[in-house]
Amino acid sequence: MQAGATTNGLEDAADRDALAAALEERSRQLDARLRETRCLFEVSASLGDFSLSYTQAAQVVVLCLPLAFARPETVQTCVTLSGCRAGDEAPATGWRLSERIRMGGTSLGRIDLACIDPDTGLPCDPLPDPELLLALARELARWFERRTAAELLSRSEARLRSAQRAAGLGSWWADAAMDCMLPCEKACEMFGIAPGSALDFERAMTLFAPRDQARLRRHWQSALGSGALDIEVRLDCGPPERWLQLNAEMVRDERGRTVEINGIVRDISERKREEERMRLSARIFDSASESIVVTDAQNRIVAINAAYTRTSGYEAHEVMGRNPGLLDAGRLNPAFYARMWSDLREADTFQGEFWNRAKDGRIYPLLQTVTALRDADGDITHYVGIGADLSRLRQAEERTDYLSRHDELTDLPNRQAIGVRLQQAISARPSPQAPNVQAAVLVLGLDGFKSINDSMGHAAGDAVLVETAARLRPLIRQGLFVGRLGGDEFVVLLERIGRDQCVERVRDLLATLSAPLSIQGHELTVTVSAGISLFPGDGQASDVLLRNAESALNGAKDDGRNTWRFYDPQMNQASLERLILVSALRRGVAAGELRAWYQPKLDLPTRTVIGAEALVRWKHPDQGWIQPARFIPVAEQSDLIVVIGEWMLHEVAAQIARWHAQGLGWLPVAVNLGARHFSDPGLPALLRHLRAEHALPPNVLELEITESTLMDAGGEPGALLGELRRTGVTLSIDDFGTGYSSLSYLKHLPVDVLKIDRSFVNSIERDGRDLSIAGTIIALAHGLGLKVVAEGVETEGQCGLLADLGCDQGQGFLFARPMPAAEFELWRQSWGVPLLT
């Protein structure tokens, strides 16, 4: 009994051990599985990485199970499970899954999972539970789905950026609450800032031109309310100017507050430049002075400019769609238009002179260039006509032609027209009533006109000429021809008139023209002289008749002016001699052939030498001494009288200084002034210069001015004399009594001395009237506080009578003739009376 019990007991123990071992193995397996399920799997893929613990994976499996394989796409990747790093619970080995997963159609593909020893790299443990693999596969599919969506989003954004670059757009986003603006790379480029820059509102505002910032602020504030922004602004850069167009949409929350702004920016600089070019072209088109009309291929007007309207009178709405031929005045023949269309077809251009009729009926010439415009295929699309209105040109040509035949100042026919008219008169048949006299040519000259110009200015001279022309113009209405020859000379043509009738008409003319004139507030009397030549006796050509009439005019002026003379053939000889004499005198002045001679002045009561008069003399190298009566009148008719006068002043001032240096005291010396020299505006300055240069005291230099010179001077002779007197010279009126001046006129002249003309002195011994005149002049002068000098004293009887009348001084052959300076000094010594100091 005990032996069996023992055996059964051993078997029971063995069974218990086996069961315990089995339980231990199962426990070990369960622990391993537990460790496997608690491992951390790290999954790496070529498209991205993510890490996930088993617990997280299990949760994902639960959530994502319905979506597994929902969007299958062809995806190929490599997945690795490794590095089970779950802290203390992590196994000592790592799991590695390597598989190509194909998601195409409905098949997931095959998954292999191996447990890899991290030390050896060899498989070491059995595969995990298939359910774990399925969960992992589903998670991978879900990850791929998310990754694919990210890729699609990335590709969409890339396509958007590409489209923006192609369209020249940049985008920007702004957070309204944080006042932060983030431009994309393209927008940063447009704004001129570094890529990735973030801007606040004020910083963004400084990117734009100062003149646009206020407008941009207003639009921005308005956009915050309206929800949209659309504005064109300039950047703060250039030149050249850069323009941007900003568009934005405001994103609002449920309360209507703007939380963010999405915007785009476009560079519109080129468009702006093109718009400016188009505006400029439009301004040029509309402001062009030439008339411009544009038609389509069917020759219907599609555009005109302002000049077209000004020229034709038609507004745009009146001509649009109509044929340009509506302006045709009907003066051009069909051949003209046939040639125009032929040229346009062959050469695309035509130029010609068109005659148009304006809206108001006015006909005007138009020089127009027509051009055909073609498209890329060579077809004509438009015609452009650019025309210049020739009306003004025609008027200018007519005006030019008129001025070529008329004097611009007086509007009378000029020398050219005078010659033509005279030739027409010459070509006419002689009158039966006066076969020897068909025409008389009158040349009228104003006496003393140069003095008016010099003293009152050229404006006054022009006014005298205009008034003279106005007085002659009634003759034109009487059928006579009147013209201006030039300068102060006018021409009147008397046709079919006898010599006696001519004299009557000339007398009437001179009387009419010599009536007082009112010029610049002054009343002037300008006398006129006339020269007359008769056809056919005095010439057979217009230029000969004019030349001979001018010679006769010179003769009239030489005879005292305010008179007339018929032409005498000897006048031409005199004119030639005068011309030769002027040339010789001009050369003589330059060659130093002039001399200053001196005639003493004496105090009549004491016979003391108190001064001298300087007289110019000319010694010609071939002809010897030429009398002043020959060359002084010639000099007075030219500018030589001024040159000679200035030479005399220089010479006399130097001689006065030399005599003083020789111990002879300051001897006053008088110099005669011609009319032109008296009116010379530079004379006062010259006198001041000479006094300063030679240290002359006041009143040792005396100027003698004839009474006729004062009367011919025009203007205000008193003002001229006053200006001369202020230079420190003594003023004397020479030849007094010959110029018909009034006492009221004389009392206003700032002069110091009157000189009685020799014509009165010469006869006082035998003509009581001359003696009375001399006495009157002396009494008059003394009454005005003036000294009196008698010229031409040649006898003791004359000297005695003048002294009895109270005459202060005298000069003449009784005392001495004019003589050179050296002889004057010897004469003074022989005279035995010392000079005044």
Work out the strand percent. Answer: 15-25%
* Biggest sheet character: 8 strands, mixed, barrel
Number of helices: 28
Overall mean pLDDT stands at: 78
For the biggest β-sheet, the strand order reads 24-25-27-28-29-30-31-32
Principal-axes geometry comes out as elongated
State the separation between the terminal residues, measured CA to CA: 204 Å
The chain-level structural class is: alpha+beta
* Helical content band: 40-55%
Radius of gyration: 62 Å
The number of distinct β-strands equals 33
Contiguous uncertain segments of 5+ residues = 1-7, 32-118, 833-837
What features would you describe in this structure?
- There is one protein chain.
- Helix content is 45%, strand content 24%.
- It has 28 helices and 33 strands.
- Helix 16 crosses helix 17 and helix 18 (628-636) packs across helix 19.
Q: How do the helices and strands line up, and which of them pair or pack?
A:
Layout: H1 2-37, E1 40-45, E2 48-53, H2 54-64, E3 80-82, E4 94-97, E5 113-116, E6 123-125, H3 130-167, E7 169-175, E8 180-183, H4 185-191, H5 201-205, H6 210-226, E9 228-234, E10 243-252, E11 258-267, H7 269-287, E12 291-296, E13 301-304, H8 306-312, H9 316-319, H10 334-347, E14 349-357, E15 363-374, E16 380-389, H11 391-405, H12 415-427, E17 439-446, H13 449-456, H14 458-477, E18 481-486, E19 489-495, H15 499-513, E20 517-519, E21 522-524, E22 528-535, H16 542-558, E23 564-566, H17 569-591, E24 594-603, E25 608-620, E26 624-626, H18 628-636, H19 640-661, E27 669-673, H20 675-678, H21 683-694, E28 701-706, H22 707-712, H23 717-725, E29 730-736, H24 743-746, E30 753-756, H25 758-761, H26 768-783, E31 787-790, H27 796-805, E32 809-810, E33 819-820, H28 821-831
Parallel strand pairs: 22-23, 25-27, 27-28, 28-29, 29-30, 30-31, 31-32
Antiparallel strand pairs: 1-2, 1-3, 4-5, 5-6, 7-8, 7-11, 9-10, 10-11, 12-13, 12-16, 14-15, 15-16, 17-19, 17-22, 18-19, 20-21, 24-25, 24-32, 24-33, 25-26
